[in-house]
Amino acid sequence: MTTTVAFIGLGVMGYPMAGHLAKAGLDVRVFNRTAERAESWVAGEGGSGARSAHDTPAEAARGAEVVFACVGNDDDVRAVTTGEGGAFGAMGEGTVFVDHTTASSALARELHAQAAGRGFAFLDAPVSGGQAGAENGVLTVMVGGDAEPFARAEPLMGHYGRSVRLLGESGAGQLTKMVNQICIAGLVQGLSEGLHFAERAGLDGRAVVEVISKGAAQSWQMENRYETMLDREFEHGFAVDWMRKDLGIVLEEASRNGASLPVTALVDQFYADVQAMGGSRWDTSSLLARLPRRSGDD
Fold first, then answer.
1. Which CATH class is domain 175-290?
2. Using CB atoms within 10 A as the burial measure, which of 35, 82, 151, 201 is most buried?
3. DSSP bridge pairs for 5
4. pTM beyond cutoff 0.90
5. How wide is the angle at C-alpha 220 spanned by C-alphas 272 and 258, nearest 5°?
6. What percentage of the chain has pLDDT greater than the value 70?
7. Which residues have CB under 8 Å from 217's CB, separation 6+?
8. Is 69 helix (H, G, I), strand (E, B) or coil?
9. 111-146 burial, b for 16+ CB within 10 Å, e for fewer?
10. Quick check: 295 pLDDT over 80?
11. To the nearest whole number, what is the mean pLDDT of the chain?
């Protein structure tokens, strides 16, 4: 059984994900660019295993059987894996690197090949469920890579994942996350337009959603975001900047594989409008902010 793991990146997702591993009794070695956050995590409670903070990804990875990472983008992944002081330089033969970052499938395949050449495994494993899902241990984990290392890492990911599934060879996890983001973009825009229409028609938006959410229009976004959207509260959840990063990855991949994504491209531009409004850190439901309220409404 795996007893020692490392976790690189203690942002709003990684911090609680690493916490679930510690609470499961594993020895958890962590690295974060902001050292104070790593020290705060180490000072936390829960679990019988050891907690320790390290100065580089390599130091955190040394001696770990499985190394997890959840950072910002492709450049960040490169930095913590193959950059100076990166984890790949310290990982032993037969170990596993699990990347939970939403990144490109091309990078996943590149790092999978590099890891194989060094004698260890690489899994691309982006997640969905947001900060709340990470804190509650109910994330969806979409994995690409080889079956044998997945079988070893799956029980560990189960400490913070409600659904953990191998979707195919290297890159398949990232491609599946792209499908996830395509669907979310369209859903949030549709919900925004629906709530906007209800307001302009003089309807009670809450009453409308309470009715239609019991039928075919129901979605996670509707159930969990309609009230804050109607109140124009956008200070929680997944930030617009990060969604645009993800949609950029999606559209770049589509240009390679020939997929036609007109709605996704349009919603990406709508998010650019939100950024121009000063909403870069608003959550993704802020698409509604682009649409005018009725005169006299708060």
1. mainly alpha
2. 82
3. 28, 66
4. yes
5. 50
6. 99
7. 194
8. strand
9. bbeebeebebbbbbbbbbbbeebbbebebbbbbbbb
10. no
11. 96
- In single-letter form, the type of residue at position 283 comes to D
In angstroms and rounded to an integer, the radius of gyration of the C-alpha atoms of the chain is 20
**Residues annotated as part of the active site:** 177
Q: What is the pLDDT of residues 86-134, one digit of tens each?
A: 999 999 999 999 999 999 999 999 999 999 999 999 999 999 999 999 9
Which tens digits make up the pLDDT trace of 130-167?
999 999 999 999 999 999 999 999 999 999 999 999 99
- Looking at the chain, list the stretches that DSSP marks H as alpha helix, in order from N- to C-terminal side: 14-23, 35-42, 57-61, 74-81, 105-118, 130-136, 147-157, 172-200, 205-212, 220-230, 240-257, 262-276
Residue 220: closest CA among 261, 177, 191, 193? 191
Residues facing 51 on adjacent strands: 28
Return the CATH architecture of domain 4-168.
3-Layer(aba) Sandwich (3.40)
In single-letter form, the type of residue at position 224 comes to N
